[in-house]
Amino acid sequence: MQEHKEELKSGFTTGTCAAAAAKAAALALVKGTIVRDVSISLPGGGQVVLAISQVEMEEQVCRGAVVKDAGDDPDVTHGLTVVAEVSLQPGEIQITGGIGVGTVTKPGLAVPVGESAINPVPRQMIEQEVREILGPGQGAKIVISVPEGERVANLTMNPRLGIVGGISILGTGGIVRPMSEDAYRRSLVPQIDQALALGHRLLVLTPGRLGVKKAAELALPAAAVIETSNFIGTMLEECAKRPVEGVLLLGHLGKLVKVAAGIFHTLGKLADGRRETIAAHAALLGAPRAVIELLMNMNTAEEAVAILHRYGMSQVFENLSAAASQRAAGYVREKFRLGTVMYALSGEIVGYDEGAREIGEALGWKILSK
Predict the structure, then answer these.
(1) CA–CA separation, 167 and 150 (whole Å)
(2) For the segment 208-217, what is each residue's pLDDT rounded down to a tens digit?
(3) What domains, with CATH codes, occur in the chain?
(4) Residues 6 or more apart in contact with residue 24 via CB below 8 angstroms
(5) What is the number of other CB atoms lying within 10 angstroms of the CB of residue 24?
(6) What separation, in Å, do the N-terminal and C-terminal C-alpha atoms of the chain show?
(7) What mean pLDDT is reported for the chain?
(8) What does 163-205 look like in DSSP terms, one character per residue?
(9) Per residue in 85-100, is it b (16+ CB within 10 Å) or e — as a string?
């Protein structure tokens, strides 16, 4: 009897929900149209249709609401209502957060201190969808709120990151793909088999969509790029079971510093040690106590970029890259070659090792400069 395999359902990011709610509100305000659903453009191309749960019309302002569907992903924001309030104003489109959307209070994030925690890609999505509705030269004020956001914020990383008062409006691809422990084999591992079927024996493992984008910028072959989510160790093990000859770990320094510390499941609530690992490698290169104290008091690993640049110690990231490769090689019992590339949120490549150079050149990357 053939085994039944249930297809896992994808969902929508809070950013996509906010863009849909804002579009529905703008349609009501500008055209007097109340819609039950809207079509939204995804950052990577394509369209998705989201149901609108509510539209409220007033003379000067309209509100649209979307109930977030995270699909089969274990997301604490699943079922929350995302509301967009739109009012017209001359000039530009202004986007801010309301009730249940957090405020950034510490540096090192994609959003400046003092601003609402609405990340750059969701902001672009919201503006694009509303701009389609507005007339030429017309601006708007858009307030995104999540009435239950403050209640669930403590279940996220926001309090530790210094985001207060609610959740963040996130998403780089617009779609939430199932990334649970139980579902990883069905949702992630087939990528490896597909790459091998296409003739690739050197693979690029990256935690998420930003890494996929960076791989494209480096001209690495798209078919060889594998998303791992937080399951870097699992995906390395799966590579070791197959005729993989080399793996290039490519990711934000905050993820790959954990690998350098021997942490192969990178979900923040399970294990950390980024500050300690960066500080230890800085100390090995002779960093003075003041620098080590700065590193140990960071809010995010991203802050290490400015600190180490300032003190002329950028080599720390090269050493961390080599350490990540060494740890990963040991993890798979030297079954294949390893290399590591770390980048910052700005997109700057902050460190890579000799293994990365060798594998990258074999994959035909655009050569990096240090």
Answers:
(1) 6
(2) 888 999 999 9
(3) 11-176 (3.30.2110.10), 184-363 (no CATH)
(4) 35, 38, 52, 55, 64, 65, 66, 84
(5) 31
(6) 57
(7) 91
(8) EESEE-B--SSSEEPP--TTTHHHHTTHHHHHHHHTT--EEEE
(9) bbbbeeeebebebbeb
